[in-house]
């Protein structure tokens, strides 16, 4: 496992300092992660997850905790040897705006760097948050088609208004690999059948 405990984060909160730890998730985190993600999913903010999906993907996840209580989660999902998606990023309502989201993203970026990825991306409604943590807004077409495979089960598939954001980690490698930074091997006949949702007008 790469970096099981990655940060002893001291996050300023109303003049006080609180100790937030960011670490890789374990099976025991699945229940609180599901409560968090599916709470937002019920409000149409995130895609719902099942216990089965979480068990399959748990190695993608990192969690932020305070005194053992889960405050937030985020996942790094690989698409190719060079690019991954930051997904399932969420912070409990009561813990928002205290830097927990930033800590999670930074931990996922460190993980991506350990794997020598060239870039990480996300699809989001909170592009301003991602700008603040070092991402730029990009055209959806700049991202691998496989990244859209979850879209077909999204209730907003036909009227998608998510914004694509990208953080380049290795600018030289990224530039050299254009126009297919994720590698030609990603483009398969199956990929070609995935229809990229267009923004709502
Ligand atoms: C988006 C989310 C993860 C941010 O977590 P957070 O812990 O509140 O964020 P932070 O406190 O670390 O904020 C980091 C920076 O982003 C800014 N920011 C946070 N949320 C923002 C928002 N919704 N809109 C604009 N800026 C935002 C903060 O002001 C802060 O800026 P600064 O450091 O330059 O002052 C959290 O609001 C959340 O869980 N939202 C619901 C789920 C969701 O939309 N997830 C994204 C899926 S891709």
Describe this structure in words.
With 201 residues, the chain is α+β, with helices and mostly antiparallel strands. The protein has one domain: 3-Layer(aba) Sandwich (Aminopeptidase), CATH 3.40.630. It has helices spanning 30-41, 51-57, 100-114, 127-132, 171-177, 189-192, and strands spanning 5-13, 16-24, 61-66, 69-78, 83-91, 119-124, 136-138, 163-168. An eight-stranded mixed sheet has the order 1-2-3-4-5-6-8-7, with helices on both faces. The longest helix has 15 residues, at 100-114. The model is unreliable at 1-11 and 183-197 (pLDDT under 50). The structure holds coenzyme A. Residues 40, 45-46, 89-91, 96-102, 122, 124-126, 128-129, 132 line the site of coenzyme A. Coenzyme A binds at residues 40, 45-46, 89-91, 96-102, 122, 124-126, 128-129, 132.
Question: Which helices and strands appear, and what pairs or packs with what?
Answer:
Blueprint: E1 5-13, E2 16-24, H1 30-41, H2 51-57, E3 61-66, E4 69-78, E5 83-91, H3 100-114, E6 119-124, H4 127-132, E7 136-138, E8 163-168, H5 171-177, H6 189-192
Parallel strand pairs: 5-6
Antiparallel strand pairs: 1-2, 2-3, 3-4, 4-5, 6-8, 7-8
Residues 40, 45-46, 89-91, 96-102, 122, 124-126, 128-129, 132 line the site of coenzyme A.
């Amino acid at each position: 496992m790469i970096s099981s405990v990655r940060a002893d984060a001291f996050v300023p909160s109303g003049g006080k300092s609180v100790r937030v730890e960011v670490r890789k998730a374990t099976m025991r985190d699945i229940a609180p992660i599901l409560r968090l993600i599916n709470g937002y999913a019920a409000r149409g903010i995130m895609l719902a997850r099942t216990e089965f999906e979480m068990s399959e993907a748990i190695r993608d996840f990192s969690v932020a905790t305070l005194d053992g209580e889960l405050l937030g989660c985020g996942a790094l999902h690989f698409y190719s040897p060079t690019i991954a998606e930051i997904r399932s990023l969420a912070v409990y309502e009561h813990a928002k705006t205290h830097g927990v989201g930033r800590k999670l993203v930074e931990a996922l970026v460190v993980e991506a760097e350990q794997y020598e990825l060239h870039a990480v991306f996300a699809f989001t409604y909170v592009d301003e948050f991602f700008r603040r943590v070092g991402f730029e807004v990009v055209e959806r077409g700049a991202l691998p088609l496989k990244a859209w495979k979850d879209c077909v089960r999204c209730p907003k598939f036909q009227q998608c208004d998510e914004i694509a954001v990208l953080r380049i980690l290795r600018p030289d490698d990224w530039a050299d690999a254009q126009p297919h930074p994720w590698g030609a091997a990603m483009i398969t006949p199956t990929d070609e059948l995935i229809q990229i949702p267009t923004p709502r007008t």
